[in-house]
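Section handout, structural biology tutorial.
Before the tutorial, make sure you can parse a SMILES string by hand: atoms, branches in parentheses, ring closures as digits. In the record below the ligand is zinc ion, and the chain has 316 residues. In the tutorial you will relate the predicted C-alpha cells back to the input. Do not try to memorize them.
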Amino acid sequence: MKAIVIRQPGGLENTRVEDVDKPKSPITIRVTYAGLNPVDVNVILGKVNYNITPYPHIPGAEFVGVVEGVTSSKKFKAGDRVVVYPRVYDGSCERCRGGSEELCRTGGVTGVASNGGFSEFFGTDDEHLEKIPDSMSFEDAVSIPVGGLTAYHALSRVGLRSGESLLVIGASGNTGWYSLILGKLKGARTFYVSRKKWVAESGAAEWNKEKVDVIVNSLGSAAWETYMDYLDTGGRVVTFGTLTGREAKLNLAHLYTGERSIIGSTGGTRKEFPELIRLISENKLKSRVWKVFEMSEYQNAIKEYENRDGRILLKF
Ligand SMILES: [Zn+2]
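Predicted structure of the complex:
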C-alpha cells in the first residue's frame, strides 16, 4: 500500500510517498479522507520534539474510512463507514480506568506515538472505531477526532454553562471553529477574535472587548496577558495549544482575587467520542473545508498550511 512516510526527523525533504506493508490487525480500514492538523504538520516538519515512534513513520492523527477486512470484531463488518478515535491507550492504567484515555500512562496521539492514517490502509480494532451516521459525509466526519473532540473536551473541562459568555481567540482554526459552534449549542453567548470574517457564520459576534466568563485561548504567548484582563471574576481560561509560543506572564493577584482559573486540556476521552459524533450528527454541524489535496500532493498541502482559509483535507 502507499503511505506518506517520514524517513527521519526534520523537514519535507525527509518524507515521501512510499510502498509499505499493509497492516495486519483485527480490523483494516481503507482510508478515504484525513484532516491536516498542527500536530501532523509539526511531526512532518520536525518542528516539535514529540516522542515519535516508530521510524520510518507514517503521520496522521485524524482520518476516516471504510472497513475493508475483519479478522476479529464484535461490532464492525466490511463496508462500514468509520471514524477513528485518535489516541493510543492501554485501557489498563489508572488514568484509562478513570475514563481519561487522553492521559494514558503509556499512550499518546495516533500518528505520533504510533503510525497514523496518512496511508491507503490503517490497522485497528473495535476499541478505536465508531460508525459514521448515514446522514454524515466523510468530509464532515473527518473533523471530529481532533478538531471537534479537542474543543468538546475543553468546553467540558472549563465547565461552560448556558447563558455564559465565551470568547474564542484564533477562531478560524478547526478547534476554534468547533469551540464556537459547540459553545453556542451549549447556550453560551459566543465571541471571536479572528481576521477571517467567515467566522461569524458560526453565529458568534466579533469581540468588542467585553468581559467574558470563559476564554478559549490556544494561541500561546501572544497577547495572553491582554486577554486575561478581560476575564470576568469567577472566569476560566482553557488552553490546548501554543501556536505563538509556550511562555506567558501571569498576574497572580488578578488570578486569586477574582477566583479565576486556568485549565489545560488535551484531546478528549473515549466516552466523549461517540457523544460528540451523535451531537454533530443530530445538529448537522459542519466544518469549513477549504481545500482537498490528493495524497500525492501532500507537500503542497503542507506548504499552504500556514495561509489556509479553512480546513485542509487529504484524500486517499
Ligand atoms: Zn492507560
